[in-house]
Amino acid sequence: MVELADEGEIAVYRGSADTTTIPNSELLVGDVFEFSFGIKLPADCILIEGQNVVCDEAELTGEPHGIEKVPLNESNYREGAMCSMLAKSLVQSGFGKALVVAVGPNTVAGIISSKTMKPSEPTLLQKKLETIASKIGNVGFGCALLTFISLVIRAALEMTEVLPCGCQNLLVCEKP
Questions:
Q1: Are 4 and 104 in contact (CB under 8 A)?
Q2: Strands (E), 62-171
Q3: What's the whole-model pTM score?
Q4: What residues contact residue 163 under an 8 Å CB cut-off, 6+ apart?
Q5: Class for domain 9-117, per CATH?
Q6: Is 54 within 8 Å of 89 (Cβ atoms)?
Q7: What is the mean pLDDT of residues 17-41?
Q8: Which of 13, 39, 43, 60 has the highest Cβ tally under 10 A?
């Protein structure tokens, strides 16, 4: 499982008007939690209340500047309001409440992590190079085997004196 939430705790509204503090890793979809500047968001969420909220999403999107977030309401939900906040984003300023819409591997950060952590499959070039290397290895093994066989045959011929021992030129090595 992809662990995205930093170690820490968060204040959550669960079945009452008061908050309960829980570990970030126990956050569930549908929870409403409080946040303030300086925290990394533990889940993908939608801003439902807040003031002056700016999130740094550079770790996920590469955007160099903080992005201002506005609470989602009846007047702006059809206009594409910037109310979504991504897990692992740093809240640069402001405070508010957010509704959790995705946790763990189902967040945008979780999906990115799971896609980039998969072992890559060899490319077409890598496959062709592997085939060529295998063929070169087979040719090298064949040459080594032929060399060994020829040396064994030569040693056997020298032992039976069919060939003079260690002699390269037969005219020089003739017996008297």
A1: yes
A2: 67-69, 84-85, 90-102
A3: 0.62
A4: 154, 157
A5: mainly beta
A6: no
A7: 90
A8: 43
